[in-house]
Amino acid sequence: MLMGFFSIIVCAIYVFRVKNYKRMFAYSSIENMGIIAIGSALGGIAFYAALLHMLAHSLSKGAVFLTAGNILHNTKTKNIKDIHGLASTDPLNAWLLLLSFLSLSGIPPFPIFMSELMMIKSMLITYPFYAVLFVLLLTIVIAGMGKNVFSMVFGEKMTEYDHRKEHFMAYMPQILFIVCLLVLGIYLPDCLHKVITYAAFSI
Q: CA-to-CA distance for 194 and 177, rounded, in angstroms?
């Protein structure tokens, strides 16, 4: 539990100072490993939530890093301040980046929303103070990442942007991941629910 909160605190501190968007998403991975650790420490339904979070995070982070790779390929820079107005210059990558961020942030209907909600509910029963701290830290992280992502997606159109016509396979994995996340957020298949339940409660 302690290491889980420490991981989120590290991300909350550095997410406002980071200048490299790929590094920013790497800090997000530290945050999400902390969330999974907290759910594992709480046990019960929170452990179920941690396993669901692990699945959702793997798809979300895969989508965001593949999209970041496309952006790096076109801009030749990892500097957040050098990238803006992607919605005008490269709409597909812009939307994939935005949707991936929303998924990582736990915005409904993405499944991370449900996993974090289950953990918060579990903490409110046993550790109310932890629940408040958890929500506060997540809000700080989302605000920091959102500030950077929105500045990259919106704003003034970039005058120098090498928008190459990528092969469709440069976009298909991210699109597939986002579709899977939307489906899992709306409807969790019974077979997958049983697998997660068995993993969480068979010990």
A: 21
